[in-house]
Specification:
This protein is α/β, with parallel strands linked by helices. Helix content is about 30%, strand content about 15%.
């Protein structure tokens, strides 16, 4: 077994001070930062409503449809002629002149596999790196900060599609939890500084043998990150006032499967996302709420939505408004989406709505795209698009456009064969012009 210095094994070396999953990843996240990057490159805040929120009960209501289609909620007019939102989304409705809405977005898969959400492509396309990992590798970030941060504390082995795959392990998302975040605190970082420098020096003597560890001169930049006041400040939510968290929303939401089980709505991910992009992080992904509302004895989609939709409405409104007030909205694209829509016809008992891949909604704001419009339209029952469907690949091509990445770019896979980022590389023309 390979040892370093005073008897430490290579595995122990990688673990010291968080240089395992956190430290190595942070070093690699800095590896491809562009020296000639503009002062403020574009960023993306990607809000995932995991489970699939109902399009009919949020951004694509059908007030003239039969009761078993339209559901229990009324509608409110948006600040765009002829556009209406669910009555529980009044704050977003008031921002519609500064946002864009995609209706009739079609997914390939009709189950909770989030490959399309994070890569644009279904699982049948093979293991593709998440778009945040692509942004890290091809776009990079500023010094002292990771390019890609995921606020998803407990990723599922089966359903976690935020993997870097052949983009490189160093471009996996940084998850700001546990030891990874603890190592950004001043006391722990500074107390271990001398030891880490010694370990890095020891590592220089065995670099060839430890090639698979992926540690090199960029590890020194990871050391800078761990001790960087700028990085610590970006992740430090204690710097925000209680009024900020109140503005971003308080409330409850119910468990998707048990309508009487309530949780506190947490605005912290939205506030942290704003702090991170303000500091220069390129991609921040959030997974918020609980949205898999089927039929069932203990389920009631409308009871659940009465709790969670107002909380989501306020968080999205606060995020977009906050970015605008700070002069960041043109530089930051906010995307809100789930993996699909929900069946137009209500199911019972419950009531609930099942998976529906033929039509869903995506909400966007900022990023320098053309706002104040609705792109796409569904039929009177919100079953399908009335014209050509927008796909997740079109959405992802648009996001790459914002990030300054060519959707026609390729990356070599594990065999060295070049793979396109997308098969359909056409962005949404109404948004990009």
């Amino acid at each position: 077994m390979l040892t370093i210095g005073g008897g430490n094994t290579r595995r122990e070396f990688l673990r010291v001070g968080g240089f395992g999953a956190a430290g190595v990843g942070l070093a690699g996240l800095l590896r491809h930062a562009r020296a000639d990057a503009p002062p403020r490159p574009k960023s993306v805040i990607y809000v995932v409503l995991n489970g699939g929120a109902s399009h009919l009960d949020t951004w694509d209501p059908k007030p003239d449809a039969p009761a078993e289609i339209r559901g229990e909620f009324g509608t409110v007019p948006a600040r765009l002629p002829g556009v209406r939102f669910c009555e529980l989304f009044p704050l977003q409705a008031g921002l519609m002149d500064r946002m864009a809405l995609l209706r009739g977005v079609r997914s390939v898969e009709n189950d909770h596999f989030l490959s399309e959400v994070y890569t644009g492509l279904p699982r049948t396309a093979g293991s593709r790196p998440a778009f945040g990992s692509v942004a890290s590798r091809l776009g990079g970030s500023g010094a002292d900060l990771p390019a890609y941060v995921s606020y998803k504390q407990k990723p599922s082995e089966q359903f976690d599609f935020e993997r870097s795959f052949y983009a490189g392990a160093q471009h996996a998302p940084f998850r700001p939890f546990g030891e990874a975040l603890d190592n950004l605190t001043p006391v722990k970082a500074l107390d271990r500084l001398d030891d880490r420098k010694g370990l890095l020096a020891a590592f220089d003597t065995m670099r060839r043998e430890a090639e698979s560890a992926g540690l090199d001169r960029h590890q020194a930049r990871a050391l800078d990150l761990i001790t960087s006041p700028r990085a610590r400040a970006a992740f430090d939510l204690s710097r925000e006032s209680p009024k900020t968290f109140d503005r971003y929303g308080k409330g409850k939401y119910t468990h998707q499967a048990i309508a009487t089980l309530l949780y506190d709505w947490d605005p912290k991910p939205f506030v942290l996302a704003r702090r991170l992009v303000e500091a220069g992080v390129r991609v921040v992904t959030l997974s918020v709420g609980s949205w898999d509302h089927h039929s069932g004895a203990e389920q009631d989609i409308f009871r659940s939505y009465r709790h969670c939709l107002p909380a989501l409405d306020r968080s999205i409104w606060a995020l977009v408004t906050d970015l605008e007030e700070r002069g960041l909205l043109d530089d930051v694209l906010v995307v809100v989406l789930g993996e699909f829509g929900r069946t137009p016809k209500l199911s019972s008992p419950g009531p609930g709505r099942e998976h529906w891949a033929d039509a869903g909604c995506v909400l966007l704001a900022g990023g320098g795209l053309k706002m104040g419009q609705v792109v796409g339209e569904t039929d009177g029952r919100a079953e399908r698009s009335k014209a050509g469907s927008i796909t997740f690949q079109n959405l992802m091509a648009t996001i790459y456009h914002v990030l300054g990445i060519d959707p026609a770019a390729t990356l070599p896979d594990f065999t060295g064969r070049p793979q396109y980022l997308l098969d359909d590389r056409e962005p949404i023309r109404e948004l990009v012009g």
